[in-house]
Amino acid sequence: MTDKELHDIFSAFKAEGKMASARPFGSGHINDTYRVTTDAGKHYLLQRINHSVFRDVPGLIDNIVHVTDHLKQKLGQMHGAKSEREVLALIAAGNGLFFTKDVAGNYWRVFTFLSNTKSYDQVLTEKQAFEGGKAFGTFQALLADLDPGLLIDTIPNFHNIGFRLSNLDKAIEADTAHRLNKLASEIEFVNERREAMMRILEAGRAGLLPERIVHNDTKFNNVLLDEHDKAQCVIDLDTVMPGFVAYDFGDAIRTIINNAPEDEPDMKLINLNIPLFTAYTKGYVQQAAGFLTEAEVNSLIDGVLLLPYMQGVRFLTDYLNGDTYFKIHSPWHNLERARAQFQLVKKLEEAKDTLNNIILKNWQHEKK
Ligand code: ADP
Ligand code: GN1
Ligand code: MG
Question: Residue 30 Cα, ligand 3 centroid: separation in angstroms?
Fold first, then answer.
């Protein structure tokens, strides 16, 4: 995008001042994000919403309005909370809506920029992990009384592993990008675990796990910490919709417990960091103990195994489809990502009992 184009798009929003500069920001795989500074010295976050991923952008924006209004109202009742720093705030466009459409048909939105915050692709300290757990636990707790009927499914079947596996099967069948050869071991890895990975879905279908409003994209760079590494704001609300708490727990752990980045090509470097796992679990359980059922607590470990597995399946599918979904930095990026996720699953399988004991110990401690 040129500065002129960004300037024109930004001027559709009721921000303070005109765009003085814009620079690409963050490392998200889906939306295009820019940090805008205005001639009035204010900072904003301008985003092009990926509408091939999110098919109903007005519905998605409505979801965010419902969720952020509810969070603001709840925080308003809490002593010491600062809702303007702890909840994302959309800026209205001149059309009265919270988004605008450019001449090419792309959707854009603007949030106030939360200054003096950091988002980490990789967690470095137990304090960060603990604060992340607190942030996502509080997020779920505050939304526990929002009517799920108000929200649309922004991506239907988002964490439905049956759906994700059937998409992989279709991609294998079509082999559009002619990449199927050399993937035998990855496909075998997936196949060996198909049934085991259905546990959460089956428990949900049997009515054993409640559907709640959850975040659905809790990788660690979707929580902002302040300059002292205290939790400040949960961001990236595009996938907030009904789901199971184990999905949020598992997706967060996927990025926290891994000593290496999500796309680490060297398998030897993919190791588990148990202290970071323990710290996240402690922060999460502290905030969530008030609403979690025993069945949900027992499902968290299944989420820890499922989410990296499902993420690997999604990366592998995208690789086979010729990289149509996730942003990539090399032609083999999605394959490297898939392999790294499967390696993480192997490590998690080995440590499953240890991890579950940590979850249960923290839960018992909070219930006392
Ligand atoms: P994506 O869906 O592409 O991941 P995000 O909404 O997560 O997009 O935004 C990308 C990055 O921009 C985040 O990881 C974070 O670093 C930063 N970010 C997002 N919203 C804000 C905000 N309101 N203030 C400051 N930084 C933000
Ligand atoms: C995407 O948007 P971002 O980068 O926070 C993806 C998540 C994946 C993640 C993997 C809407 O998240 O589901 O877990 O990449 N978001 C969507 O890094 O598909
Ligand atoms: Mg993000």
Answer: 8
